[in-house]
Every structure is written in structure tokens, then in C-alpha cells.
Amino acid sequence: LALPPNGGAPCHQYEVYGACVADAGCVWDESALRCADTPCLLHCGQMDCDADEDNKCAWNGAENTCYTTPPTGGACEEQKTETGCLALEDPECEWSRDDEVCTEKLCTTTSKDECTADSQCEWFEEEGAAVCTPKRCTAPTEGECVADKRCEWEGGVCKVTECGRWPTEQLCSRDGNCYYDALSEPAACVPKRESCGDVVDKCACHEKEECFWLGSKAKCVESQYGACPTLDLVVLFDGSGSMVKKFGHHEHGFYALMATLREWVGTLPLSGEKAGVEPAVDSEKIRVAFVQYSGTYDGKKAQVTPMGIGAGGRLSGDKDELLADLDWHTANHMAKQTYIQEGLTMGADILATSPEDGRRRAVYIISDGKLDDANRIGAELDDLHATKPEVFGIVVRRFAQHTEED
Predict the structure, then answer these.
(1) Torsion sign (Cα): 74, 77, 82, 83
(2) Within 10 A of 206 (CB to CB), how many other CB atoms are there?
(3) Which is nearest to 323 in space by CA: 174, 128, 163?
(4) Hey, is 358 helix, strand or coil?
(5) Where are the beta strands (DSSP E) in 274-388?
(6) Helices (DSSP H) in 5-126: which residue ranges?
(7) CA 15 to chain centre
(8) More confident of the two residues 23 and 367
(9) How far apart are CA 198 and CA 223, in angstroms?
(10) Sequence-ordered list of residues with C-beta below 8 angstroms from that of 179, at least 6 positions apart, any chain
(11) Which of 174, 171, 220, 213 is nearest to 194 (CA)?
């Protein structure tokens, strides 16, 4: 086991990159996102050690041991994969898909004075939020300007668009006319795409690859929902503390999930009925309810929106009610451990109100990791299955490739 010249800990005990590479007996495994013993330790002689250039080995004569040469570049620059780059938290890094390089993220200070003193940064303060962000839309030419989705060329000047002015995913998701495109470079808040339900002309519907004209209803619908039955759906989503981490290019996993659910609600063929209203039979439409699960061993472990807010923890086919639900959950992130027991009970109670009129029932369970109470939920699962739903598990992964953390 690696112990460096200055004394240290077993490599697997280092949880962050900086502490790991500071120990000459350890290397950071980008694929597994963990600290491991350097392969250099396997070389028992100086000749073999110095010949191993792939692992950057160097012989320590005082110790008669082969160690890894310390990195010469910054922590971000040392990362050669997107996963390794985005996983670093101190310092924060960002990955360029175009150049395939990792660089230190700019403008991360929380101090207004430090932010405004940096010529590359600007201070954004609006809607109760204050954040330092890289200056946007300063390109001198139209081509460079419009290549950034946050910008538009107007009157010979590069300007920030209505959606592009929101610098973070959370602020972007609050604007009903915008959505956050984390895959663009740079990531950008952009105008929301027209949904199929907004298209009233049959020919215009056929022109959209993602849309389908439902003749029986004379309506344009998303192709993926064109054959949906009448359905009541409960979504149980993970509100645990691990969801605050960076997920890929999303700065905050929970806010990214909320934004994704908001956009998803906008595409659903909702029934239109508000919570508490008797639903129509055989409508071929969907009602949805949301349950957030998390908590502590001896405390609350799940929650729904209170009565009077959105759908009030009930099934609803009304878009505005469901979006209000998601706004409330965004503002009331539980951020504790991954307990689902009470969430399953809430889900079963919600589905118990679903009419016995031939409609289908389903449950989505979204999580980013192992359930902490998996061995204590037998009775709750029985109660949930008694409502006869189809149950689907959805795993949210932090990075494009599987890691030990996933």
C-alpha cells in the first residue's frame, strides 16, 4: 500500500483529486473517479521505474521506491476525459467538447467586488438571485455572435437574448418561455421549442418529425404519446442530498431534474382536469402527481405540495397546477438521505383515488443511487402493487460513463 515520503494515508481514503495527487504513492483514476495506488509501486528497481514513461514514474533514491511524478499542470488541465473534468469540485472545471480540453471555470466567486474587479466577469442580480458569471455576448462580428445561443446581432451590436440573460439553469427554468440547453457550447438558456400541442394545422403537424396528427381527436400530439391510453401516473423522484452535485454539464442535479420534468410536462397529452375534479372516462389523456422522497431515519421521509398550492399532492391533468407543484418542490428540496418508504405510501394513497374505469396506472421511480431503506419497504411495495400500476425505475447518472459513485 502506498505511503509517500512525507507520510500519508492509504490511497483509497483520499476522496478528492487534489489530496490524491499530492501523495506521490497515489494516482487519480478518471474512469472510476477515485484515488488508487500508483502502478509505479510495482517497479522494484530504478531501471524499470525510470523506463515507465506511460505512468510518469520516477525513482526516489532516499526511499528506494518508485513513485509517480507530481502533476506539473493545474488540476483541470490534468484531466483528459469529460467525466474526470466535470467531476472535480475544487477547483471547478469545465469541458470543451469542441477542443476536448478541460479548463478551470471562470467567475466562480460569490463576492460582488471580486467579480466586478475581474474584466472577464459580470455580476448578475435579479429575481432574488446574485451570481458572478462570465461576460456574455461581447463578440465583435455577427458570425461569432450568433454562434452563441445566448446572443443575437442587432443594429451592428452583439446583444443578450431574452432567455440568454438568465445565467443559471435554475433561473432559466423559472421562465416559462425558456429552457436550459446544457449540451450547447457554451450551455445556454434558449427559447422554448413549440410543442406539438400548440400546432393546430394538420399539414404543419406532419412537417414536424416529432409530431403525429391524431385523427380521432383532430389534434397534433407528440409522436411518442400518440397511442397512449387513459393514464394516471405518479412520479416519485429522488430529493436526496447527493442530487446537489454536478450532473454532467448541469451545475446542480436536482435543479436539472426539476427543469427536465417541467419541460416533460409541457409535452404530455394532459387531460386538462384540475386536481379533485372527476376525470373523463376513456379520454386517452394523462393525469400526473409528484412525490419527492428523501429524509432522515427518524424524521420526515417524503413530501407532496400542500393543499392550496398546485395540485396539492393529487393527480392533475392541468399543466399550470403541475408546474406549480414542480416550482414548490424546487424551492423545497429535502436534500437528506435516500429514504423512499414514506414516498411509496404516498404514491399508493394517490393511486387509490384513481377511478376503476378501465384507465391504466403507472409509477415512475427516479433515483441517482442506492435506496437507504431498501430492506424495509416490503409492506409499502405490497400496498403500491395493490393499486395495480406498472412500475418503472429510472436511474439518473452523474456522468456519461458509469463510475463507482453511480
Answers:
(1) negative
(2) 13
(3) 174
(4) coil
(5) 286-293, 302-303, 360-367
(6) 17-21, 46-51, 82-87, 112-117
(7) 22
(8) 367
(9) 14
(10) 172, 173, 189, 190, 192, 193, 259, 262, 263
(11) 220
pLDDT in tens, 43-102: 999 999 999 999 989 999 988 999 988 776 678 888 888 877 887 777 788 888 777 888
Residue in the structure block whose three cell numbers are 443578450? 160
Q: Are 20 and 11 spatial neighbours (Cβ–Cβ below 8 Å)?
A: yes
Cell of 372: 437507504
Residues 344-387 have pLDDT tens digits of 999 999 999 999 999 999 999 999 988 999 999 999 999 999 99
| 44 within 8 A of 94, measured Cβ to Cβ | no
Grade residue 390 by pLDDT with cuts at 50, 70 and 90. Answer: very high
In terms of DSSP bridges, do strands 360-367 and 390-395 run parallel, antiparallel, or are they unpaired? parallel
Look-up: residue for cell 435506496?
A: 371
Going from the C-alpha of 262 to that of each of 80, 172, 395, the distances in angstroms are: 34, 11, 18
Contact 344, 379 (CB under 8 A): no
Residue type, 88: L
Give the distance from CA 246 to its chain's centroid: 7
Q: What was the pLDDT predicted at 401? A: 62
Cβ atoms within 10 Å, residue 99: 9
Report the candidate in 178, 230, 222 with the shortest Cα–Cα distance to residue 199.
Answer: 222
Residue showing cell 394517490: 350
Task: Taking the CA atoms of 344, 345, 351 and 352 in sequence, report the sign of the dihedral they define.
Answer: positive
Q: What is the mean pLDDT of the chain?
A: 88
Which of the four pLDDT bands, split at 50, 70 and 90, describes residue 173? confident
Grid cell digits, residue 375: 430492506
Statement: residue 5 has pLDDT above 50: no
